[in-house]
Amino acid sequence: MVRALHWDAFMTTRTILTCCTAAAIVAAPLLVSTPAQAQEGRYDYYEGRALYPIEVEPHFTFGAENVYGNTGFGGGVRLGIPIVAGHLGQVPQNLAISFGGDILHYDNCYFGDFCSANYLQVPVALQWNVFVARPVSLFVEGGVFAYKGWFDECGPNNPGCSAPSDFGVLPTLAIGGRVHIGRNAAFTLRVGYPTTTLGVSFM
Question: What is the pTM for the complete model shown?
Answer without folding.
Answer: 0.72
